[in-house]
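[job 4417] fold queue: 2 targets
>>> target A
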Amino acid sequence: MAEVKNTKQESFWVLLAQSGDKEAFNKLLKAIEKPLYRYVYRLAGEHALAEDILQEVFILIYRKLGWLQEPKLFRAWTYRIASREAFKRLKNEKHWSEQIRDNEVLETIPSQSTDSIDKRELLERLSTLIFKLSPASRAVLILHYQNDLPLTEIAEILGIAVGTVKSRLAYGLEKLRQEIKKE
């Protein structure tokens, strides 16, 4: 019930902001700032980079808010903008090319036995392990498991088919399972 109220409130703020109300725009940004930052940070992996991306996202929201035709889709629309901006930024910075991707090199790194790792340590390592995934799979996992969004909404946010969301989710989970077994 609170979610419906929040959606209606956000829709109202969107309409006010579209008509030039700066206070309503500020309320919109405050309402989405923390969840959007958490999402972008989980994609980027660095606080400074996440803050830069979020700043760009807010500028884009400011510039394009007038084009949003369905105020109730504001939150999904902002996640879509954030996803695109994060992917673009990560690609431009070649963040992923610095990671070791050669399986032979990874296999030579000594790992701890699975008996010595307890569940708490594994959960702490999960945030590190998720960065071994592609940004596309990572985005789907974060939106689904950490932000509790349904697959249909994730598809809408990322601008892809639901089947693609499912395959990225399955691929990401399989890769995580493989990494956990290595741990």
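>>> target B
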Amino acid sequence: MNIQEIALSNNQRKKIQKAVKDDSVLLVEENGDIVINVAAYKTFKQELENDPVEEIVGEDVLDFSAEYFVFN
């Protein structure tokens, strides 16, 4: 399993949870980590006119060759 871990501030974490409300894309772990399924996120953002996670964390941060993004 290929995972990209990214450190976030509390505000960024809250913004991601508000921007991505699809349960097939985003999962919140008991410890507060946010897990995003990359394949599901790609499909999700095709339906939108923007890239919500990239706008929050930055364009060059995400590695789309990973299977999951884990924000902690």
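[job 4417] complete. Note on B: The chain has a mean pLDDT of 94.
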